[in-house]
Design goal:
Structural class: alpha/beta
Number of helices: 2
CATH topology of one domain: Immunoglobulin-like
CATH superfamily of one domain: Cupredoxins -  blue copper proteins
Number of strands: 9
Strand order of the largest sheet: 2-1-4-7
Bound molecules: copper (II) ion
Helix content: 10-25%
Largest sheet: 4 strands, mixed
CATH architecture of one domain: Sandwich
Oligomer: single chain
Radius of gyration: 27 Å
Length: about 130
């Protein structure tokens, strides 16, 4: 009595494995080649509190890409840099992140545009790009 011949199962499995490994290698190559700007940009932590941003002055180089990480520690503050088209409301305990790159030398004014108390009008800061 002869046993029925089994179809070769190794070849398709190996082919699938090669396709999978090739896909993983290609994906790794693409990920390696992708620019990692967001990961390499310097993070500048800013605290928003009645009635100031700290630090108040942020010196940057023209064209330098940075991540502003703004945390309100006490109230709903506005964070606005009109000349860079950046704006957010930041509730107490929340953090807002924005990536910026000052295009020209100069001063970029930061204001709180959400009324937060008697000295709200004094709550400002600036980015000085040179
Ligand atoms: Cu305010």
């Amino acid at each position: 009595m002869t046993r029925p011949q089994r179809p070769p199962v190794l070849a398709p499995t190996r082919r699938r494995l090669l396709w999978w490994a090739g896909g993983v290698s290609l994906e790794a190559l693409v990920l390696t080649m992708r620019p990692l700007r967001a990961d390499t940009a310097r993070v500048i932590e800013i605290v928003a509190r009645r009635f100031e941003f700290e630090p108040e002055v942020i010196p940057l180089r023209v064209g330098e890409e940075v991540i502003l990480q703004v945390t309100s520690i006490d109230y709903l503050h506005g964070f606005s840099i009109p000349s860079l088209a950046i704006r957010a409301d930041i509730a107490a305990g929340q953090t807002f992140r924005a990536t910026i790159r000052p295009p020209r030398a100069g001063t970029y004014v930061i204001v709180c545009d959400n009324f937060c108390g008697d000295e709200h009008d004094d709550m400002s800061g600036k980015i000085v790009a040179s």
